UniProtKB/TrEMBL annotation:
Domain called Sushi: residue spans: 67-126, 127-188
Native source organism of the sequence: Bugula neritina (Brown bryozoan)
Disulfide bridges in this chain: C97-C124, C129-C172
PANTHER family: COMPLEMENT COMPONENT-RELATED SUSHI DOMAIN-CONTAINING (PTHR19325), SUSHI, VON WILLEBRAND FACTOR TYPE A, EGF AND PENTRAXIN DOMAIN-CONTAINING PROTEIN 1 (PTHR19325:SF560)
Protein name, UniProt field: Sushi domain-containing protein
UniProt keywords, alphabetically: Disulfide bond, Glycoprotein, Repeat, Sushi
Length: 218
């Protein structure tokens, strides 16, 4: 590519060179990138910017990684996130309430391309038990008692009844049911001296009978 002026006054390179611009050829598609258009310029000093597919981001020109939303935020009284659960673009996460708590609707979140979960975490509220049924010869259960998970109620016998060895406390459990089964049974109280009272009645009866016999036979 070098020419010199010789002793005859001529340039040594008779035919001047002809240079053409270098062409890099077609670009290859990257991993999880949008296809490279076929009509882009590929000659020297041209440039092309790869674009990742939706839901992916790139840490290098030719490699794209799936977007991660990170662990979903915990709701009120929801179970903690379990490590190993998928957190990438388009993955789903189903919220679960802690034992004894519930939500009105099933709550499922999805990881979006914006690196955010699609919905806010739910609020779980305590399960409710129905008003506990009355026991046998127990005082009526008030309608105003607390009936949510963890609440307790202690039965009371009606006046004149007792249940000395019966369990009287019931608790609303995590399944929304009362724990006390069977229900308490209260029975009538017995006199402290039943035998003595019977003996006294018998003696009085015999005494009256003897007096009447004496009066009618004398």
């Amino acid at each position: 590519m070098t020419t010199s002026c010789d002793e005859q006054g001529h340039w040594t390179l008779q035919n001047p060179p002809y240079c053409t611009v270098k062409d890099c050829g077609r670009l290859e598609d990257g991993t999880n990138t949008q296809p490279v258009p076929s009509n882009i310029p590929t000659i020297y000093n041209s440039s092309y910017t790869y674009q990742c597919n939706i839901g992916f981001e790139s840490s290098a020109k030719l490699t794209a990684f799936s977007i991660s939303c990170g662990p979903p935020p915990e709701g009120i009284k929801t179970e903690s996130f379990v490590d190993g659960y998928n957190q990438e673009y388009l993955d789903y996460y189903k919220y679960r309430c802690k034992p004894g708590y519930t939500t009105d609707d099933e709550v499922i979140a999805q990881c979006l391309a914006s690196k955010r979960w699609s919905i806010l975490p739910p609020t779980c509220h305590a399960k409710k038990c129905e008003t506990p049924p009355n026991g046998e010869n127990t005082k009526a259960v008030p309608n105003s008692i607390a009936t949510t998970y963890g609440s307790s109620y202690t039965y009371e016998c009606e006046d004149g009844y007792e249940a000395p060895s019966a369990e009287m406390e019931t608790v609303c459990n995590h399944q929304g049911q009362w724990t006390l089964k069977p229900l308490p049974v209260c029975t009538g109280r017995l006199s402290q001296y039943p035998l003595e009272e019977t003996k006294q009645d018998t003696l009085i009866y015999k005494l009256i009978t003897s007096i009447l016999q004496f009066l009618f036979t004398s």
